[in-house]
């Protein structure tokens, strides 16, 4: 089923947003100052091409880091929002609306609405399988519950 929905997404206009993400990935790789964005751009490019069967998880759930690295990610996300994030978010919204106009495109349109907020702040996001995402979120919730219970 995921394969059919991924093909449907591509045919109904998902290729346009994927192309936008690919262009952003290439620009971020070519311009040295934006090199830290390249991995995040590539992750979201994969997700916009194949949104079904995968999920996006913040890296803090997969690999907990120090507060300094989280702060750096926040600064990078702010610069990203100003340079690229807003127009990629708008692209996801417009493609999502266009896909939702037909009954068959509603699932793929909803996938683009899910990607819209992520495109605003992509630094630190990773594309993983649905199962891995569920396990990572469950582990983080259990860890948070333990910390609050022991406090």
What do these coordinates show?
This protein is mainly alpha-helical. 76% of the residues lie in helices and 7% in strands. Strands 1-2 form a two-stranded antiparallel ribbon. The chain is globular.
Instruction: Please give the radius of gyration in angstroms.
Output: 16 Å
Average predicted confidence as pLDDT? 84
Helix percentage range: over 70%
Task: Give the CA-based shape.
Answer: globular
Number of E-type strands:
2
| Count of DSSP H/I helices | 6
For the record, give the distance between the C-alpha atoms at the N and C termini, rounded to a whole number: 45 Å
Largest sheet: 2 strands, antiparallel
Which range does the strand content fall in?
Answer: 5-15%
Element string (H = helix, E = strand):
HHEHHHEH
Given helix and strand content, the structural type is mainly alpha
């Amino acid at each position: 089923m995921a394969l059919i929905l991924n093909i449907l997404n591509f045919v109904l206009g998902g290729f346009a947003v994927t192309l936008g993400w690919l262009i952003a990935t290439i620009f971020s790789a070519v311009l040295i100052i934006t090199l830290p964005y390249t991995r995040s751009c590539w992750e979201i490019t994969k997700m916009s091409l194949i949104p079904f069967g995968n999920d996006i998880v913040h890296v803090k759930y997969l690999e907990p880091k120090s507060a300094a690295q989280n702060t750096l990610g926040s600064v990078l996300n702010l610069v990203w929002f100003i340079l690229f994030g807003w127009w990629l978010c708008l692209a996801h919204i417009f493609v999502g609306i266009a896909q939702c106009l037909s009954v068959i495109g509603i699932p793929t349109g909803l996938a683009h609405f899910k990607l819209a907020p992520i495109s605003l702040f992509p630094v630190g996001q990773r594309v993983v399988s649905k199962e891995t995402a569920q396990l990572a979120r469950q582990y983080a919730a259990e860890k948070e519950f333990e910390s609050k219970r022991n406090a």
